[in-house]
Amino acid sequence: MKHTALTGAAVALATTLLVAACGPSPTTGSSVAGHGTPSGSPQASTGTTAGTHAGHGGPFKAPPPQPLRPSERFVDLKPPKPYTPAAPSGGTDEYRCFLLDPGLTGPAFLTGSQFLPQNTAIVHHAIIFQIGPDKAKAARDLDARTPDEGWTCFGDAGVQDGAWVGHWAPGANETLFSQKVGYAMAAGSRLIMQVHYNLLATDGKPGQSDRSGIRLRVADGEKGYTPLQTARLPAPVELPCASGESGPLCDRKAAVGDLTHRFGAQAEQTLGMLSEFCAKGAAVPPGPTQHCDRPVPGPATIYGVAGHMHLLGRSITIQLNPGKPGERTLLDIPVYNFDDQAIRPLPKPLAVKAGDTLRVTCTHDAGLRRMLPALQGLPPRYVVWGEGTSDEMCLGLLIWSPAGRSKG
User: Fold this and answer.
1) pLDDT tens digits, the chain, 408 residues: what are they?
2) How far apart are CA 368 and CA 370, in angstroms?
């Protein structure tokens, strides 16, 4: 799961929690509101073979929705026409943003949502952004001057101040919190549905079309709900080629140049910001496992967590105050399964305070490249943080309310 991400990717990192430190972790040791019915506990393991990294593409049928609760209603949205993606700059990925109008005439809360991927052969993941009514005209104008449905949007929503209010990746269906919480939405707000299309099968060329949509769970009114936000906790990826692999892209400089060619200058800016935030400006040492620490800027309540990597991911954790008295593990996926990226609601909402530390840790395995059909035809490369399916991410997600304490 993009994300997405900052001037593209650089802005999203800059608006996450402030980062204190980051660096390589030992190789041993130790999924947002409205998305992801949990398919296992935070400790769930799904196997140890490459089969757990097979990607996706099979038929998708959303589970039946849970009953509406008091004041809730469903709103179904999708683009007016199918879209046929084509990857720019010789790449194999396109991020496309579609403007959707939930038709809000008064204040409301988004209390759940179910993304409905129409063509999982090419849909890698999706992020739902909210923009206020003051940004709606800019989004409409961008949509109108861009050919076909939507606009290309590597990194972020392509419109200033887009707030992450939901996502979908394989295994992440609607999650409902038992507490009375949701994402606040003003009258006239719009949604931007960013879809990451993976075109590895056609070498980036146009092929199949898609008309994915989303089912919103909306509670009208503005009283009685605790407002949620999604915090992004990225960490670097610095994964050299595996033993026995060789080729021009095994050189980091060449690999970064290729990444920049495919996704633009923001891709290299993201790497610099990760180094600045996570390693205090120093080079991040290469290796399979990396982590990044961030101080919590103020009091907040955490309701749920999730983790996102791509096909080379092996494990991911999110910890609170690691190495200190009272440390807690909020997310522990020791065997990462790309097809199980559900949000994990915490057993009980967790209050955090200013000065607490959050750490995300990821382990990747370049050796999986030889085992996965989707990657076998690609040249070996030094892998860094990137938007493409053949690149990698290390991203923790927190569903939390920075404004105060749980009302549940």
Assistant:
1) 433 333 334 334 433 433 323 333 333 332 233 333 333 333 333 333 445 444 455 667 888 999 999 999 999 999 999 999 999 888 888 999 999 999 999 999 999 999 999 999 999 889 999 999 999 999 999 999 999 999 999 878 888 878 999 989 888 889 899 999 999 999 999 999 999 999 988 888 999 999 999 999 999 987 889 999 999 999 999 999 999 999 999 999 999 999 999 988 989 999 999 999 999 888 999 999 999 999 999 999 999 999 999 999 999 999 999 999 999 999 999 999 988 888 999 999 999 999 999 999 999 999 999 999 888 888 999 999 998 888 999 999 999 999 654 444
2) 5
Mapping DSSP to helix (H, G, I), strand (E, B) and coil, where does residue 58 land?
coil
What are 401's two structure tokens? 């309310």
Q: Rounded to an integer, what distance in angstroms lies between the CA atom of residue 183 and that of residue 225?
A: 9
Determine the residue type at 40.
Answer: G
Predicted TM-score of the model (pTM)? 0.84
Cα angle for residues 79, 80, 81 (degrees, 5° grid): 95
Task: Collapse the DSSP code of 14 into the 3-class scheme (helix H, G, I; strand E, B; otherwise coil) and give the result.
Answer: helix
Select from 121, 39, 36, 111 the least CA-distant residue to 73: 111
C-alpha span between 165 and 284 (Å, rounded): 31
Q: Coil, strand, or helix at residue 69? A: coil
Could you tell me which residues are beta bridge partners of residue 316? 333, 362
Q: Is 377 exposed, middle or buried (0-12, 13-18, 19+ CB in 10 A)?
A: exposed
CA angle 73, 68, 98 (to 5 degrees): 45
At residue 223, the 3 state secondary structure works out as coil
Best CA proximity match to 336, nearest among 11, 6, 55: 55
The partner residues of 226 in beta bridges, in order of sequence, read 181
